[in-house]
Amino acid sequence: QHIDREGQxxxxxxxxxxxxxxxxxxxxxxxxxxxxxxAHIVNxxxxxxxxxxxxxxxxxxxxxxEFPTVEVHQAALSDHAGLAEFVYVPELPAYSxxxxxxxxxxxxxxxxxxxxxxxxxxxxxxxVPHFIKIDVEGAEREVIEGGLETIARHRPIVVFEHGLxxxxxxxxxxxxxxxxxxxxxxxxxxxxxxxxxxSRDHFSEIFASGERWxxxxxx
Length: 219
Description:
By secondary structure, this protein is of the alpha/beta class. Helices cover 35% and strands 21% of the residues. It contains eight helices and ten strands. The strands form two sheets. The chain has a seven-stranded mixed beta sheet with strand order 3-2-1-7-8-10-9, sandwiched between helices. The chain has a three-stranded mixed beta sheet with strand order 4-6-5. Helix 1 runs parallel beside helix 2. The radius of gyration is 16 Å and the shape is globular. The mean pLDDT is 93.
């Protein structure tokens, strides 16, 4: 059921990219992985300036080859800069993250070292993002906190994943995320069925149900 829901939500994200991005939109892909959404970003916003973060060397190098106009950072975004241990999942690379999380099948995680960066410290001078995608297997609070100045100032569209089995491994609650995006940045959070804007309590209820993982925050 979760896999079916994930596929449906991914399709909705692709529709969002088609509808809301303009030719000159500047986009940021946090957790680019195999580049599925980066491909849509590059095709839709042909004259935008795009940045991507991907800590796994193989996928970062692939993104550089396939999307030469994108500035690709081989690093994980967080709330501080430095080095950190990263849990690489060879069987399910998309589930790789800074901490172990629940997995849908048996896996054999490996530990590698990755660079950590803060979004607020890593953007080109004068850069104004119009769209940010965050898919970091539970570390979304750290990403948002490290980019909160940028998000609150420019109020871009933010598509993000937030769910049980991942965020809770970081001690992150839906209240944390709501307070950052809706409280501080003044964005309006919807689920991918366009239900919303979600109140703090409703967002928490959806999280607790385990039925939703993907959301969009709109100015």
